[in-house]
Amino acid sequence: MTDCVFCRIIARQHAADIEYEDDAVLAFKDIYPKAPVHLLIVPKRHIASVMALAPGDAEVVGRCVLAAKSLGEAKGFAERGYRLRLNCGPEGGQVVYHLHVHFLAGTRPSGV
Length: 112
Ligand code: 5GP
Ligand code: ZN
Description:
By secondary structure, this protein is an alpha+beta fold. The chain has two helices and five strands; from the N terminus they run H-E-E-E-H-E-E.
């Protein structure tokens, strides 16, 4: 059994509110939302972080961004917009070491 919580969510060994799934990507609600809509979009294959990316991961990273676009449209934010965020490593604020894109919507960010 893996000790990666997002791998456990992908394997349905850990509960999550799943909002999107395809062959390469899963998206689910963040357990501690920082915006009215806060989803995490993850590759199904374990990749620890942006720092661990290899050239062959380009497609799955693109698929995560395309999943964000689909979620933005499905949730009514295609015009209003949303924020996508990747926290990378300790000084980037990354806590869970399974690559994830934060999808944050429904609030206007104040800074970068
Ligand atoms: P990071 O700081 O690594 O970019 O973000 C990790 C995110 O994962 C945090 O926003 C945190 O709330 C979320 N998170 C951590 N554990 C769980 C969990 O077990 N389930 C869900 N749905 N989200 C989690
Ligand atoms: Zn993982």
